[in-house]
Prior knowledge:
- The chain is built from 14 helices and no strands.
- By secondary structure, the protein is an all-alpha fold.
- The protein has one domain.
Amino acid sequence: MRGLSDWTLSPGVVLPLAATLLLYALGFARLRRRAERGRSGLGRGALLFGAGWLSLAGALLSPLHEGGEHSFALHMIEHEIIMLVAALLLVAARPGPVFLWAFPRPLRQVFGGAARWPFWSALTNPLVATAIQSAVMIGWHAPVLFDLALESEGWHVVQHLCFVGSALLFWWAMLHNAGRGGRLVAAFCLFATSMVGGGLGALMALSHSPWYAPYAALGLTPEGLSPAEDQQLAGLIMWVPGGLWHLGASLWFLAKALGDASTDKGLDDRPGDGDEAAERDEGAQPGLPAAALR
């Protein structure tokens, strides 16, 4: 039976997670008191945020993290939960306005304006965000950097920050830039990501020698796998479930794009309806509510 000693309760991990949850709870309470309409949407967002936060906290604090110190396969599961599950749920929650309401009005206006900065627009371009996440995945799985993260707690934190940050940026770009025409771009980016992650996982799964010296030096894992077998299992996890996750999302966006095209064709057959539909679609683009800044 696992005890508290198997949980990672480092202040460097616990405090940021606790601060994030506290800020969200404070902003949620303030925004809900002022909201006359849309409380159901606010509640759905809170459920998504809670699920994402619990997924992230579970991956970083639970015995899974400690197990990853002795097994590459468990380490890979931790990373997949962070980048595929937790990041997606947190972005889908649209927590920006809620976080803003945790701060006083002057800071809300400063932080809220950041969403309109050209630098942020460039970062959240789907192609740019895809390239950043791909570079993070490939770079941090290079033996020299991965070994560094395994041997140094500080570099391990940097690795996780890179994974969390790039995944949040990626899913934000996929979900919040997917208006008219953007869904096809998102489908392409997700397919490309499935190829990058799946290809990297396949290389690990098909390799007969371990890539990472710290894991090779451990010998058999607690589950009785050799370092090579442990790496092959980790590669399969990245290759199959990870690749299918992105591929499934790609197909979902493709289906939505084709549905939009079919709807647009029907509207274009009726005079005037196409322009009205375009205006509705443009107005539906996700953005920061002006009320959140007041």
